[in-house]
Amino acid sequence: MQINTVSKKKYFLSKKVDSFFAGVADAARFVGDYFTQLFKPPYEFSEILRQCYKIGVDSLPLISLTGFIIGIVFTKQSRPSLSDFGATSWLPNLIGIAVFRALAPLVTALICAGKVGSSIGAELGAMKVTEQIEAMDVSASKPYKYLVFTRVTASVFMMPLLMLYTSFVALLGSYINISANEHISISTFIANAFDKINFLDFKAAVIKATVFGFTISMVACYKGFNAIRGTEGVGKAANAAVVTSMYLIFIEELMIVQIIGWFR
User: Fold this and answer.
1) For residue 1, what pLDDT is reported?
2) Is residue 179 within 8 Å of 208, Cβ to Cβ?
3) How confident is residue 10, by pLDDT bands cut at 50, 70 and 90?
4) pLDDT the model gives residue 122
5) Is 222 exposed, middle or buried (0-12, 13-18, 19+ CB in 10 A)?
6) Which of the residues 10, 134, 167, 241 could staple to 117 if both were Cys, CB 3.0 to 4.6 A apart?
7) Distance between CA 151 and CA 120 in Å, rounded?
8) What's the pLDDT tens digit per position in 127-160?
9) Are 146 and 136 a contacting pair, CB within 8 Å?
């Protein structure tokens, strides 16, 4: 009896390991198909533009509010520490470095993971469980090219733009707070904020945003394409798209920061 129990445990463990690696292989194949389609015209430019509008313009209200509040709050929280050393004049430098090096790419990615990732996961999940994707496949309309490639490409293009927009909105919020307390001009604030920002910082922020955009949309599309069990599966696909994207974003942030640190 004990031997049978041990053998069953080994069987279930082996089955889980096999399932894990099969899932990894399937995900790698799904990602690889994007780069294959990247060099295979024709491209659905009208759908890419439509997705750019949905990802970019529809996200502006939430990103504007979040970026503005981050700029104000981070400035208010930093002022007491700097004032202890009589260095409140360094606030614009500190805000500029913090926003471009860390806050803007990460905050933009997390917001888009919640809004864009869940939307894509739910939309494609609903199409999957209602067999619309299979119908497109049968009619030879290339569902991957139309549904996945367009969304991932639009996300890769729009995420750096949204990141830059978040940066400037955060700096605007910071300026309003600093101006109300230190009474400096906008030209002085901008000069000080960008004084310590170099091309490497700008390039690193764009790289981060591009990688994050690819991750969010690719994970959401993969989860949507593999949704099962009706409406319950749609909800699970949307939730998994957000949670998995956030995990990967933090891991990628750590890796990119480490790599960029080697070049400084």
Assistant:
1) 47
2) no
3) low
4) 92
5) buried
6) 241
7) 8
8) 988 888 888 878 777 889 999 999 999 999 999 9
9) yes
**Buried/exposed 19-41: b ≥16 CB within 10 Å, e otherwise:** eeeeeeeeeeebbeebeebeeee
| Longest Cα separation, the chain | 81
CB 167 within 8 A of CB 102: no
The closest alpha carbon to 110, from 245, 220, 222, 238, belongs to: 245
What whole-number distance in Å separates Cα of residue 229 and Cα of residue 256? 37
Residue 96 in tokens? 């500029």
pLDDT tens-digit series, residues 15-27 = 666 677 777 888 8
Convert the pLDDT of each residue in 112-127 to its tens digit.
Answer: 999 999 999 999 999 9
pTM: 0.90
Q: What is the CA radius of gyration of the chain?
A: 23
Angle at 55 (CA atoms; ends 222, 246), nearest 5 degrees: 50
Q: How many CA atoms lie within 13 A of 58 on its CB side?
A: 12
**Rounded mean pLDDT of 44-71?**
93
Spatial CB neighbours of 86, under 8 Å, sequence gap ≥ 6: none
HSE, CB side, 13 Å, CA atoms: give it for residue 173: 21
Where are the chain's structural domains? 46-263
Between CA 87 and CA 57 the distance in angstroms is: 39
Of residues 158, 176, 167, the one with CA closest to residue 201:
167
Is the predicted pLDDT of residue 208 greater than 70, yes or no?
yes
The token pair at 242 is 């957000």
Looking at per-residue pLDDT, the higher value among 45 and 233 belongs to: 45
- Residue 109: CA atoms inside 13 Å, Cβ hemisphere, count? 30
Element (H, E) at 180: helix 150-182
